[in-house]
Design goal:
This protein has 214 residues and is mainly beta. The protein has one helix and ten strands; from the N terminus they run ββββββαββββ. The strands form three sheets. Strands 1, 2, 3, 6, 9 and 10 form a six-stranded antiparallel β-sheet that branches. Strands 4-8 form a two-stranded antiparallel ribbon.
Length: 214
């Protein structure tokens, strides 16, 4: 009878641990929505910043003559605003951009805290012609959204996010503003209309963080 020699199998367990511990490991999970993308702040060199309640110092009649034919009805003269289309929310940051680099081979946790309080209002390009409140009413009605003339950003708001290996996480706290298009137009007392003035307008929609990796 042939004898079988016993075989002893030895299993080795290898643990690979990262060299650096993530900062603020005990911080709570983020409460704000996170956007991961390149910076999305619009070019603002041609935008007009608007006070929450601008003074109505518009001229009684525009320089341009009416375009439409006269009409027998009587209308209240003044500018009207009409929203026509919208795109997406653009972030307007308050304070400096914060960054954290993860030089390890593992995913780390990055914590960011807002350090500046401030306010973000409406910006636009073109000839608005009306008070901000008038444009907001039309935007909300046309697109079924809620926007504001101004939103406040507070200090101390904190967010915790993952930073991939060998990547930097960048964060900025501020206000998301809806970008939409429309036009202002003057209506005369005889109900004729002046020329249409194209307007691009950014209206505050929500407060939050903007996060992207580089």
């Amino acid at each position: 009878m042939r004898r079988t020699r016993p075989v002893i199998a030895v299993t080795a367990l290898v643990l690979a641990l990262g060299s650096a511990a993530p900062a603020f490991a005990t911080d709570p999970e983020p409460t704000e929505p996170v956007q991961t993308a390149p910076s999305a702040e619009p070019e603002e060199s041609d935008l007009v910043e608007v006070e929450p309640e601008p003074v109505d110092d518009l001229p009684s009649v525009p320089v341009k003559p009416p375009v439409d034919q006269p009409d027998a009805r009587a209308c209240e003269p003044g500018y009207r605003y009409s929203a026509t289309s919208k795109t997406k929310d653009y972030h307007k940051g308050v304070g400096v951009t914060q960054s954290n680099y993860n030089g390890t081979s593992r995913t780390a946790r990055s914590t960011f805290t807002s350090e500046v309080a401030g306010k973000v209002g409406v910006s636009y390009s073109g000839k608005l012609g009306v008070k901000v409140s008038v444009a907001i009413v039309d935007i909300e009605s046309e697109f079924n959204v809620n926007v504001s003339a101004e939103m406040s950003v507070s200090m101390g708001n904190r967010i915790v996010v993952d930073t991939p290996p060998k990547k930097s996480t960048n964060a900025k706290y501020g206000v998301y503003r809806l970008k939409s298009y429309g036009y202002s137009q003057y209506k005369y007392a005889n109900c004729t209309n002046g020329v249409k003035n194209k307007v691009t307008i950014y209206t505050p929609r929500r407060v939050g963080w903007y996060i992207w990796e580089s």
